[in-house]
Amino acid sequence: MKHADQLFLGLMSGTSMDGIDAAVLRFVDRRCDVVAAACIPYPDSVRHSLIAVRQDPGICTIDMLGKLDHEVGKCFADAADDVLSKNRIATEKIMAIGSHGQTLRHQPDSKPPFTLQIGDPSIIAARTGITVVADFRRGDMAVGGQGAPLAPAFHYWLFGHDNDNRVVLNIGGIANITALPASGPVTGFDTGPGNTLLDAWVRQHHNRDFDMDGSWASQGQASEKLLLALLQDPYFVESPPKSTGFEYFNLKWLERKIAESRVRPAKQDVQATLAELTCRSVAAAITLHAPGTTEVFVCGGGFYNRDLMRRLGQRLRGVNIKSTAAQGLDPDWVEAAAFAWLAKRRISGETGNLPSVTGASRPVSLGGIFTS
Ligand SMILES: Nc1ncnc2c1ncn2[C@@H]1O[C@H](COP(=O)(O)OP(=O)(O)O)[C@@H](O)[C@H]1O
Ligand SMILES: [Mg+2]
């Protein structure tokens, strides 16, 4: 098969648990073409179980974990089948699937550290008939890294530029930046919450999965006092490498901060404050750790939150903020593409982590290989 005919399939579901992103990609000459892609929602029962376990890990018995691992594996396999069959792509054309899995816990700083992604890769391989690369994060953690973020090597491959200081900003449940200076090492880390607190607050008060276009936040007035209290959290000032997750930034965290700061903002004002929190923490991270940035390429669902993007523009004046589509890759598929690309690296025996990003002691090849 010619190089250009080789396709890879990325499967990704982030902290938002909004659905499984499945993208079929072709990687040629530092270009990434999306051949087909879809976001396939979890069946309600699986999503509810995942949310329940994440909210209260104490309820998760070993039996429950095993069953969920199996169920999520089937959902990931279905997502792969769906995107292939609807687009009439033969399985033989797919060199490998890179499956990130669904994170249930990410505890890089616990002693000992661990990270747990579920979605049995053997089931994906058996049901699709395609080789699967999965369990990417633990390889990096095993050599002292945070296990996250792992997309920066791919960001460098696709967005790195000899003359421009660029940043890739992914606003998923958690937000992360990759700094791609014209010269010097690639760095990157989780800046803190992206959409996760915005989603949680709107879910609690309006029973909606997210605040469409940020319209509720745009009706509120950010509380400067609460915002300062939130920004004082030690995570924001900690030096990278660092990564975080839902187990840290969640409603309990927010409610504790509201109680401590003794402010009583209206509900829409809290939503506006959370939007400011995402933007200010991202902007501060870029200003401090990626000085001289001229271009920011945004991806992840947060790109569609118009209120959030407007606020970000106000915090990063003079910086050209655009979607990753400007570089030919739709913002919805960047993360899935990163794991497809990492699968390609794995099966060709190349390394996938960047020690300058994760803090690992050395570059390693990431993920296990599961053949069908
Ligand atoms: N039109 C929109 N308006 C506001 N927020 C949006 C919109 N579209 C997507 N989002 C946000 O993006 C999130 C999903 O982003 P995604 O990148 O898939 O995150 P993750 O990687 O955590 O799954 C949703 O939960 C929601 O907060
Ligand atoms: Mg998602």
Question: How would you describe the overall organization of this protein?
Answer:
- Strands 1, 2, 3, 4, 5, 6 and 12 form a 7-stranded mixed sheet that branches. The chain has a 5-stranded mixed sheet with strand order 9-8-7-10-11, with helices on both faces.
- The protein has helices at 44-55, 62-86, 121-128, 137-142, 152-159, 196-206, 215-219, 224-231, 234-237, 251-261, 267-289, 306-315, 334-347, 355-358; strands at residues 7-13, 20-28, 31-40, 94-107, 114-118, 132-134, 166-171, 174-180, 187-193, 295-299, 320-323, 368-370.
- A hairpin with a 2-residue loop joins strand 2 and strand 3.
- Helix content is 40%, strand content 22%.
- The model has no long low-confidence stretch (mean pLDDT 96).
- The chain folds into 2 domains: 3-147 and 332-370, ATPase, nucleotide binding domain (Nucleotidyltransferase, domain 5, 2-Layer Sandwich), CATH 3.30.420.40; 152-327, Nucleotidyltransferase, domain 5, CATH 3.30.420.
- The chain is globular and about 60 Å long.
- It is built from 14 helices and 12 strands.
- The protein is α/β, with parallel strands linked by helices and 372 residues long.
- Bound molecules: adenosine-5'-diphosphate (ADP) and magnesium ion.
- Adenosine-5'-diphosphate binds next to helix 6.
- The site of magnesium ion has 6 residues, from loops.
What's the short version?
The chain is α/β, with parallel strands linked by helices and 372 residues long.
